[in-house]
Amino acid sequence: MLVVQKFGGTSVGDLDRIKNVANIVKKTKERGNDVVVVVSAMAGETNKLIDFANYFSKTPPQREMDLLVSSGERVTSALLSIALQSMGIEAIALTGRQAGIKTTKDHTKARIMDINPAKMQKHLNEGKVVIVAGFQGISEEGDVTTLGRGGSDLTAVAIAGALGADKCEIYTDVDGIYTTDPRIEPKARKINVISYDEMLELASLGAKVMQSRSVELAKKLGVDIEVKSSFKPEIKGTLITKETPDMEKVLVSGIALDKNQARVSIFGVEDRPGISAEIFSKLADKNINVDMIVQNVGKDNKANLTFTVPETELELTKEVLKEYENKAEAIEYDRDIAKVSVVGVGMKSHSGVAATAFNTLAKENINILMISTSEIKISMVIDEKYGELAVRALHKAYNLDK
């Protein structure tokens, strides 16, 4: 069996933890498996390198930043290889380029274009554990690139697809995906199996265990992912896989809370064909990620438009909308909101899910400001101060603790 294992920053946070990872890899290898390991930088290392760069410039060149921050993963890969070899396990560390990972030239947010697995396969055939520095690749111009947030997960999934791995294990500091954040609801329960689409929704809605780009790629390549803890490797984690008919028996799989959203309301803008296209095209040109959108029915040739953006992109949104300050009656911005979402493929075949959500929030006297739905998701924007209360109430309403 070929197993790809990825270890995040907290799992390799110091030398003792790297030794712990080496023991996990050693046991996997000794069970007769071929093993490819993808590693992140040691926890805090990337931020330290960014601080170094900012000492000289607040806007350092992105090409140089990629070369700088990609070094953290290379340090971890070399240390893990040294640790394994000291235990009598043959191993070799590779950079992204040496592993054959080719990317676009978009520095700090490159996309993987292709992987030539020949070199990794050669070392596997020689019986070695292959350790790849995650988060990075090489552009056609020969420059080092990095893959953005969640880049090492993306590396692991892409390598698993390129090598046709039997299993891709993502090791982190939690032992799986939970029905909601256990820090908010202590009765949150670990999910044994979840579909790609459910995980995609939870990841995009604020669940931080997996980045949505990695899950999207896993779905595209058909790679099963098991999320588990590097501190309790013997405990079974959560399997992320393709949807099966049995999954629809579960009405709701999880509740997500996203506090990093802001609401933008444009009141009394001219109600004419193309006005929404004009505004949202200008936001798209600045790469602003607009999520929920509500437009009311026009009256007296005026319309109201409300939408949400990530809080980090609110200032840029304000700049884009400056030209509409004289074209609308008012523009309001609200940072004090939260988005709470109910996710589950069971919604496809069960009715009343939305009614349960709305009644539950009403019983808690929580006003819903905006609503959006998809086939497997209901999202509601509410006052931020009620976010955690809403999560606990919904978790109980759908019996997710049982």
List keywords for this structure.
402 residues; alpha/beta; Carbamate kinase; 8-stranded mixed β-sheet; 4-stranded antiparallel β-sheet; 12 helices; globular
Can you put this structure into words, describing what you see?
The protein has 402 residues and is of the alpha/beta class. Helices cover 33% and strands 26% of the residues. The chain has helices at residues 15-30, 45-56, 62-69, 71-86, 118-125, 151-163, 196-204, 212-221, 275-285, 314-321, 353-363, 387-397; strands at 2-7, 34-39, 91-94, 101-103, 112-115, 129-133, 136-138, 144-146, 167-172, 193-195, 225-229, 238-241, 254-258, 261-270, 293-295, 302-310, 330-334, 337-343, 370-374, 377-383. The strands form 5 sheets. The protein has an 8-stranded mixed beta sheet with strand order 3-6-2-1-9-11-12-10, with helices on both faces. It has a 4-stranded antiparallel beta sheet with strand order 13-18-20-19, with helices on both faces. Strands 15-16-14-17 form a 4-stranded antiparallel beta sheet, with helices on one face. Strand 1 (2-7), helix 1 and strand 2 (34-39) form a beta-alpha-beta unit. Helix 6 runs parallel beside helix 8 (212-221) and helix 7 packs antiparallel against helix 8. The radius of gyration is 23 Å and the shape is globular. One of its GO terms (biological process) is lysine biosynthetic process via diaminopimelate.
CATH topology of the domain at 2-173: Carbamate kinase
Strand order of the largest sheet: 3-6-2-1-9-11-12-10
Cα distance, first to last residue? 35 Å
Oligomer kind? single chain
